[in-house]
Queue: 3 jobs
Job 1
Amino acid sequence: MQRIDSFPLFVEPFHVDFNRRIFMGVLCNAMLNAAGKHSHNRGWGIPDLMKEGYTWVLSRFSVEFGRMPEMGETCNIATWVNSAIRLFTNRYFRIDDAEGTPIAYCRSVWAMINVETRKPADLLTFRNGELNTWKVSEEEAPCPIADMRPIRNKEATLARSLQTYYSDVDINGHINSVKYIEHIVNLFTNEELTRGIRRIDIAYKAEAYQGDTLLFFTHREDANTLLVDVRKENGDVCVQSRILLHTAPQENNEDKQTTK
Amino acid sequence: MQRIDSFPLFVEPFHVDFNRRIFMGVLCNAMLNAAGKHSHNRGWGIPDLMKEGYTWVLSRFSVEFGRMPEMGETCNIATWVNSAIRLFTNRYFRIDDAEGTPIAYCRSVWAMINVETRKPADLLTFRNGELNTWKVSEEEAPCPIADMRPIRNKEATLARSLQTYYSDVDINGHINSVKYIEHIVNLFTNEELTRGIRRIDIAYKAEAYQGDTLLFFTHREDANTLLVDVRKENGDVCVQSRILLHTAPQENNEDKQTTK
């Protein structure tokens, strides 16, 4: 069986921002859906796992862009499993433009948990370690972006608080992973978003639920980098993130190579 | 040239709510994207029109559901132009399940405006009335739902106020038509959303912009019907809407016919 799956993504006019670039949330949703289909094609999708009482949980997500896909463009999202250790698996992504030139890469880390006990499964033994048979090494399919650096956001100050609603919640009743990204992107000014986001690192720490108030604590790590913690009113940290902006405005259709 | 276009819609796991039904916002976005592609295929898409200084503006949108598409299902969205009078065109939609059984219908009304003057174009003469050549009569393609009834919401009281952000704004810098729908759906309780939405009527009256505070005024017209006005702080009404709930919980996969 092939180990890398690819899914086309057409950038619809109702899915782009005022710069005619795809919304980060729409793109990340498409990536998670690609991951879901890659798993489903192997009988390991969330609906398959739920029959056995398990589900996938996203733990870390790092995506780095040369540029964002633009209105009318057809991109391609490739995804594969790079490795698995006992409790975590690394899933990588590459986004290519229509000519096959990479414009973004992503590294993500997932756990599989028991839906009752919330305890992680041992991925090396679950279903006799079948997950290992789809691994694609770095040599076979490179993902040339750095790993996530630790995020320490001790000096953060409250930038925004938000009530959560029905539309923030996923199939499991938790605040959707991508909704955090949307709310974090909304913290930036239009001038900053016109420059564009070069990289997002996000670590998911604790679940939040519909109706929870989310507090967004920010700290500017350097001129182009914002750290954002999302906390609940009780102080629990749900998400830690680092967002790196491009230093100059993204030139539409000119900077086609991913920055590497 | 064929006059009705159809587009498949696969219901992704990251696009469904806690009832495993597609989010209303995701579905309405897919419908507007289908409209965009139908227009684009005839050289009348927003990017085409913008070259001549015009754009499409959604004026009214009525959608009635037998049931909502569910996770893992592949539906089909068909759309066509039913009629055009001088300043408005009626676009209809039908959503079929994988077996071709209709599960929803939609009637929408659009104007084409000059982006500078904001004045509507005469659709009967624009490009020599070419729009009329794609009309599909009610006999050829029925859309068996009622027209929108007038919405009078004089007794409404303030239910929620919301700040708008970058992610609420479309390519033209206005609050996105579908974002109003998402915010309106968020006004309902989970119990009501489990019963499900049977019909939404929405009339777009005035534009709002990023940073505007939106005020949601509601009035219960009857046991199953909520009227929602969305107003700006200066009192301008942006949107008037009527939402009709199903009387009993939607049975997954049982009530396949649209209510007619």
Job 2
Amino acid sequence: MKQTSRPHGVYSPVVTPFDRSLAPDHQRYVRHCKWLIDQQVGLAVFGTNSEANSMSVDEKKRLLDTLVDAGIPTARMMPGTGCAALTDTVELTRHAVSVGCHHVLMLPPFYYKGVSDEGLFRSYAEVIERVGSDALRIYVYHIPQVSQVPLSLGLIERLLKHYPRIIAGTKDSSGDWNNTKAMLERFQPQGFDVFAGSENFLLATLRGGGAGCITATGNVNPAAIVALYENWRGVDADARQKALDATRAVFARLPMIPALKAAIGIYAHDRDWGTVRPPLVALNDGQREELESGLAQLEFSMPGIEATV
Amino acid sequence: MKQTSRPHGVYSPVVTPFDRSLAPDHQRYVRHCKWLIDQQVGLAVFGTNSEANSMSVDEKKRLLDTLVDAGIPTARMMPGTGCAALTDTVELTRHAVSVGCHHVLMLPPFYYKGVSDEGLFRSYAEVIERVGSDALRIYVYHIPQVSQVPLSLGLIERLLKHYPRIIAGTKDSSGDWNNTKAMLERFQPQGFDVFAGSENFLLATLRGGGAGCITATGNVNPAAIVALYENWRGVDADARQKALDATRAVFARLPMIPALKAAIGIYAHDRDWGTVRPPLVALNDGQREELESGLAQLEFSMPGIEATV
């Protein structure tokens, strides 16, 4: 593993457990986060797969406080702090920095569409100026198929020029390898750390000099993904990548977030884990069976997950 | 004008003035709202054109309190209360109802894309159950080109069946007349009030039995739009519609929200009115000139607006 305090390796957008009243379940949350940390996976809490944008800023602040109070190292966290509203993004980012989480993953404001690079530059700049911390490190979050607000290479170049230390990297969830490749070639040499948005691109990203991946399925398949990260120069790296892709495909055939939560529920024998907030809908029985049989065929397991319940 | 307490006529998503620090300017806001009320325009505060999703729930609650404290009648307001997060939507809707604003315009949760009608139904149902007020009246807000989360006719039918009094109508901002027409034919007879999303469709909507329009340009051209609403059965109705379309076209050629604010600034001799929050960008000098000359050619005016500064 690289000797550096810069985030690297495998992170997961931690799925957020909700109780039956749809409130965040802090106890289950801490246990799942500790399990991930034990598996060498960093905590990209409040990502897309965390249903972060179905929660208020206050709910997210309280969850972050709970993790810090539970002794989970802030150096292993990369909270998502980008909201639709400028003031929400500033408040959540400030809070993250105040509790020692200096690395944040930041969506652009995502309600207004067709906005200009100038407007997006000002959005990030305004947040940086308002938070006003030299310790802040922002990973810009490119997920155009969901946010519908892409981050262009030109925007990143301009942000890097103005805030060379604070703009620290990206998660590229576009699924467009040409875009990831361009980021690796143009910006990684400047110390801008490129994380692939899923483990499908982990090996290619590492071969291109990137930092790792931030991936939904890190929630359920952490050990194997970390094993590829740690052995990516090995002769079996391509075989490992192929195996990871096969596991991910079982989840990707279903609605991803409900499928991740259902899998945790299945392997932890805790069906309530499948609860999601609207507008998402939990897997139905047929989908659960499809998930179970698909994973069983791969002899999938989640060692230790049952102890987290 | 119809003798009914149900909202009808012309509403405007009130543009939100920001000061130079980008904070909402409550004084300018109250004066602009009073001017609109004097022009017989209802206040759809916190709409898309209000930059509502660039503000936090707290900022919107405080603005609403300011309007109520200023004595503006809540019966003339229809605040937008739909946020990305379930808990934010509940909080803002509850607050609106608590201060006497029973009619709200509600976006679906808009971060997650490709969500099912089942998930959207549960989203609205959960808000309705949590707010728990028989006085609540929801106008569902269909603006797929921005939200990227369309509201299908099937969803509306299901909502109307389950919550026949609370689901009160819609703003259809799709710009797709076939969709508006289908809503008018299927749901307006059940007392579901259809508002066109712009005055381009005002006459057609009224002829189809609809309730009026909720339109961005109500902020700047209220009197003429209201005049069509009040005289839509007149022989000059089509000519009035044509004139409204010509005025709107001047704004629609430019980024709409910055153009609305710039126009108020121009006619009120208050250039700071042009301020927007990122990710939006104020008009540049060339765009301002285009706006000024386009409006001058139409002999456009905003009577009384200069007294609001």
Job 3
Amino acid sequence: MATKYVYLFSEGNASMRNLLGGKGANLAEMIGLGMPVPFGFTVTTEACTRYYEDGERISPEIEAEIYEYIGKLEAHTGKKFGDLENPLLVSVRSGARASMPGMMDTILNLGLNDEVVESFAKKTNNPRFAYDSYRRFIQMYSDVVMEVGKKYFETLIDELKERKGVTLDTELTADDLKYLAEQFKAEYKAKIGEDFPSDPKQQLMGAIRAVFRSWNNDRAIYYRRMNDIPASWGTAVNVQMMVFGNTGDTSGTGVAFTRNPATGEKALFGEFLMNAQGEDVVAGVRTPQKIEQLKAVMPEAYDQFVEICGKLEAHYRDMQDMEFTIEEGKLYMLQTRSGKRTAAAALKIACDLVDEGMRSIEEAVLMVDPKQLDALLHPTFDAAAIKSAKPIGQGLAASPGAACGRVVFTAEDATQWAVERGEKVVLVRLETSPEDIEGMFHSQGILTVRGGMTSHAAVVARGMGACCVSGCGDIKIDEENKRFELGGQVFNEGDWISIDGSTGYIYGEAVNTVEAAISGDFERLMRWADSIRTLKVRTNADNPRDAAVAVKFGAEGIGLCRTEHMFFEEDRIPAVREMIVADNVEARKKALEKLLPMQRSDFEGIYMAMEERPVTIRFLDPPLHEFLPHKDEEIAALAKDMGLTFEQLKATVNGLHEFNPMMGHRGCRLTVTYPEIAQMQTRAVIEAAINVRQRTGLNIVPEIMIPLVGEVKELAYVKEFVDATARQVMEEMGVEIEYLVGTMIEIPRAALTADCVAKQAEFFSFGTNDLTQMTFGFSRDDAGKFLSAYYEKGIYESDPFARLDQTGVGKLVEMAADLGRKTRPNIKLGICGEHGGDPSSIDFCYKVGLDYVSCSPYRVPIARLAAAHAVLKNR
Amino acid sequence: MATKYVYLFSEGNASMRNLLGGKGANLAEMIGLGMPVPFGFTVTTEACTRYYEDGERISPEIEAEIYEYIGKLEAHTGKKFGDLENPLLVSVRSGARASMPGMMDTILNLGLNDEVVESFAKKTNNPRFAYDSYRRFIQMYSDVVMEVGKKYFETLIDELKERKGVTLDTELTADDLKYLAEQFKAEYKAKIGEDFPSDPKQQLMGAIRAVFRSWNNDRAIYYRRMNDIPASWGTAVNVQMMVFGNTGDTSGTGVAFTRNPATGEKALFGEFLMNAQGEDVVAGVRTPQKIEQLKAVMPEAYDQFVEICGKLEAHYRDMQDMEFTIEEGKLYMLQTRSGKRTAAAALKIACDLVDEGMRSIEEAVLMVDPKQLDALLHPTFDAAAIKSAKPIGQGLAASPGAACGRVVFTAEDATQWAVERGEKVVLVRLETSPEDIEGMFHSQGILTVRGGMTSHAAVVARGMGACCVSGCGDIKIDEENKRFELGGQVFNEGDWISIDGSTGYIYGEAVNTVEAAISGDFERLMRWADSIRTLKVRTNADNPRDAAVAVKFGAEGIGLCRTEHMFFEEDRIPAVREMIVADNVEARKKALEKLLPMQRSDFEGIYMAMEERPVTIRFLDPPLHEFLPHKDEEIAALAKDMGLTFEQLKATVNGLHEFNPMMGHRGCRLTVTYPEIAQMQTRAVIEAAINVRQRTGLNIVPEIMIPLVGEVKELAYVKEFVDATARQVMEEMGVEIEYLVGTMIEIPRAALTADCVAKQAEFFSFGTNDLTQMTFGFSRDDAGKFLSAYYEKGIYESDPFARLDQTGVGKLVEMAADLGRKTRPNIKLGICGEHGGDPSSIDFCYKVGLDYVSCSPYRVPIARLAAAHAVLKNR
């Protein structure tokens, strides 16, 4: 049987969303519920897919099927395309499976031509309305279907208004508009080389093609990428009889929500305009009235609308977002859909619907999008305080949250002001570098002049959950003299500023902030999620403060504690550098001995914060050159500090240079070369665990993670040092403790040979950041340059660093998980890349049977909810 | 049943080589053949493996089994360990499955102690011989078993000689040697803190342990890596009754080959020393006599030996390398094995054995090691000429072959001298860079001051099959003034030098060279190999000259033609640079149009050279910054040439900078960004094919290869441009030709998703160089720094860039081959990484069912033979 590509509204229902799109399915459903909906038909999403498969053309069969349905629509409405007595006018609207508001094209008033408009003017007794509709149609059609460009038409309108000496469109008369329609057609002919199509069927085919085409316009592609919508879904096209809200004082149009989309409060919320079309409400030329006021204006239509709202909410069991038009006193429903809502509203509505008996707990959990929670997890500006503040500039919204503090210009100053004086500071830098870590950590927020969304400042700040505005190029910074200028104001060290990492706004004053907390509806929903999920949620945390935040947000352990961040701190980096320049084992061991007490006390702090929750500690990972300066002046200064000649230190720096540092001497390759580093780190891990146990009775079971393993013998080699050192420490201290040794799976070869690796590894943690880089063969630092072209050209639909690539990287993860379990059935499996906080990736982790995901502290609640979704969606 | 770890020689035979090692198995075989072999037993290779599994100790069961076999040996020989009347003395020798001459340890004269030596002196009536044996034993045991260090004993000998006023060891008397033995034991006690062991059983266990341990000494590890011998094999230990060639004038010792190992000539070849032990022959203190002379000295023993030689060769059906000792007129065989031979000898012996009816053709083919052929494939110095030449310096033997030419100092000069003047030149540089390609191509050889075996010069030269000596640090070069100094001589531009890329020697004069050719036995064997193999052999060649060499060596097509090498040539690079700095499509197209005729004529030349053999052309691969200079002076100069400001060009260079160029904007990523590059290259490929067809009637079917694909949509996107351009060219020229579009599989993700990729790709070529880098996660340029530690520590046994890692990378290759065939059953599969010329990798390619391998021209015969081996070995 041939595929059916067109459905009358009476042939569909809400369950056919994949085929008819959200809009089409819901229009059909409302028809089924007996609600007043202008009749029409839907061309399916499959027709859109066919359109692209056929090389961006509508095949003759589908065209014939559309013509057949025009006939059915004409029969149903008693109107006819091109008929002078009773012409059929239609709207043509996109409607994808998922709502993509405003991303694709719409054409209204289709079916008008020179003859039809004339009789339409007579029949409606409203020539101005008729000709206004006509010129709008020509303009919209030329723009959307033929891509002529709005500006040519706007110029013609402006010229006419000038000639007539008027300023508003509404001051133009019916004749003016008729004249404009003529001019528009002439413009069309000049640009396209053909007459404006007068055949409504031809118009319709053009409009349908335009909607299909708009599925792949830049903003739709971008929206899909941001919202994980696959390009393969396609859009449906809804062809619907026009109704007019702008025929006079008994007509109007509006939009409304069954509950407040900002707060979730249970009360009708919306607005309407009398004598207007839908686009006027959006355009904001006139101020709309509140929906309640409709009761006074048109009580009958209002009551009918309220009744429909109640029915729709009860029917869909969710807050609805509706569009309606009243034509000559008669109410028509043009759309209903589940309404977009703020995170706070989403939580309240989900909880209320459970309390109202409309939804089960599991359904309620599924109603809240995990990603939305992000908005609730960072400090925000005090609502009253921010009202009176005015931004003085804007950068990139690099890491969400609000921050307020005194300006400092160096990481050292940040640490000093914050730690010694107890001041809140905002660190302002041209750009940040790894040595700034400690100062960044002590800052409320970070503001940089250079660097994008993946700059050092942005990446580190997001990891820390710290607020960051990056790349504000308007700032004129003078780091030497500790001052900057923005928006005409000069800021010196110690001056107050505030920044908003969710909007990129910068305020030249102190604006109070409030901390995030999980309470009320939020807490209730998270408890429900916890009762459903099976995946554990851990956090990536390198210090007690982050660990404590994560525990507050529900973290059940640390999945990744990066020891190198500790190495960058001001009091440690000299010893680290001493270790690097050491030219023999003894000298290296001496330097490492200086680091030992510091590392040990770091670990003690983290164990205390996590109590008995598991802590995975990754051994030193970055290449050593990251710890040394690279500019000659800095090398000279450091050489002097270290008692070396410039040439000696320069030679060390040069010797450590790498062509591809990502693929260089780092991770366990360092420990294979210098096992004494692993010895020191093991000693710190085990001594700290024993100390905390003796001090508090807490039973700490550290998990030691060896990074960048590609071959089991590598791991075996390092593990031997780890085990020997651990045994020695336990003997020295006379205390036995448990500990695990495992590895990160971040090199493709480790995944491919995971059955061998599991012979040595007691756990795997998938390091999907590096695994993605190696599997795709591009470095995250460099890929920015070409990935944008890939998105534009539809080659990649989403950022593989944000959303796990299940086809390629995922295949390796699944293979490694299976191979690992084959060797060691109870092997512990987790993920600690940034994907650990991404809902779609968490769903994948659930499906391949990982034990836990680990993410930054501020994403822990998101992961908890996403883990619950994974259970429910995969049932 | 418990594993048997010890075998008497009478219990074994030649088929038990894996268990008994080569030496043990052959000793047992000779016993079986009734030949005179001193009796003994073999501790198996499995005992060695157990030794390592048990933490480098010999388990009590194995120790007990060894003691049991000592008893059996005593019973068989009638001698006893420690017995004063008839003491048993033994040699303890290693013997692995594959011959590893001199890599592991040996201990002779074991069983002597203070009492035994005294009675031994009496019994042999030769106290000097007895005490010399004793002091040698103490010295060897201390060194090998206890690692005391030879030097302490040598000092003692030197002191004694000085005190006695003698210079030769032979001048020391029996008493002197007895005194030395005492001193040696005292030294042993001082160093070890225990008495020298007098119990022969204890001595024996120490010696066996030492041999096991020596399996993992540095030189054995290195030898295994060079010869693809797995560490898991282990070594056996042979304990054999001592016989003495140094008891007087009726004793002697020698080594002999059944055929000449240098030429393959069928005649006994060897030498012997009367009144000597084996080590004396090797030490070279006395000059040995030719084996034929033994007939005169000891006719009976000689005749017996000749008879045994004949029997052994007939038995093993191969040229044998034997050791023998004559004790008091009685002949003993100590070893027989297949003799090592030169490549020329290997070919002659293989052919002769077929002609003599001793071997089948297939067996003969298997007797020649493909790797050995390398020595026959490069130009060599004329044998007469090189005799009188003296090297003036030595660098690294970076790329084999001999070269002779006049010195030039720049790539431009090389091209000019060679092309315009028709001179032979040797390019001498501090180091080479990609811009030097053309000059390198026109040089007979390349000599560099800096850079190792994987430097640019070395890698490129090997690819070209050009001779190269790299890293000769003794050269003082003054590039500016075009002169260098070496070995006290100064060389100016135009002076003659000669270099040998197989030895690293540099000659300050012209030494004639002779070209390699495949003829005689070589040709005969290659024809046999061709009749057996199923894998096709293609070559990597970027120009007609290399293509012609490869065809001469039997190449059946081009598997990889890198188009970027053509881009570096002097007349093209300006257009390439113009394309790079172009800031819009039109400007870029204009620059590309300049490249078009040059690329087209390149392809025409290659098609002509290859006739109708398939040619795979890879589109532009390297990142664009490789085509621009990086130093400010050079940028300034180029900017001037190009009519740009310094700042403009510097900005372009900076904009192209990448953190990890290996994983950056290159390969098909360039074509996705700039499809016009693929359009130009397609046009050149297709126009050239049509031109050649019209000119010569040759039917050219080009294979267009898109590099660095990681996702099928990438390939689909580029392929669309390729196909559209190809169609257009064929329409313009009015000729239809066939062509294929395929991809390199060099990104792990492409291998993992090969079923999808095969929907677009008509062939796969495995680019195992990059695939190895990405799968291991280390860059070839950087890995040198840490890989040596990996080899030392036994983590990797071989260089994964030289020998395909079958466990990890191979798994991806196999997976991709299977997935590719699933989608497209007749998909063409090949390999074009450097592994394509490596025999063990070729064996793997055969097993996973590839259609062809592709390697550099000079490795084509090696690949042909290896492909035949693959068939025979996998039957």
